[in-house]
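Quick one, tokens below. Sequence please?
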């Protein structure tokens, strides 16, 4: 088993400032805490180790499972290239199959929602 993470990159036909603002809005809307913010990089986290410990990984909703996200923006002529890495941050060396599946489902949906929110 591997610890769940997903990385992706794509180009959006929009100026970097507009994309940057949309990403920040998306992160806040998804209850993510921004940990670092520069014009080229955004880092955020989501979830709660405390809730996960209290409820256990089986009962904890996927939104409360600890996650980290790293986003890089590169300005092209009239487009913006986006690189995203989202991964679990629970701190276990290996995850059981059910927890890995829960993370992967959430991460895939999260990335699809981000991509959909940035594509005109």
């Amino acid at each position: 088993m591997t610890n769940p993470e997903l990385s992706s990159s794509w180009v959006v036909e929009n100026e970097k400032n507009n994309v940057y603002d949309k990403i920040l809005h998306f992160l806040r809307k998804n209850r993510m805490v921004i940990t670092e913010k520069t014009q080229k990089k955004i880092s955020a986290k989501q979830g709660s180790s405390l809730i996960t410990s209290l409820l256990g990984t089986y009962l904890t909703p996927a939104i409360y499972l600890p996650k980290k996200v790293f986003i890089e923006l590169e300005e092209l002529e009239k487009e913006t290239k986006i690189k995203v890495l989202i991964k679990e941050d629970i701190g276990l060396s290996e995850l059981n199959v059910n927890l890995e599946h829960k993370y992967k489902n959430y991460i895939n949906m999260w990335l699809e929602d981000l991509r959909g929110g940035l594509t005109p």
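The first helix runs from residue 16 to 29. Helices lie at 16-29, 49-59, 97-118.
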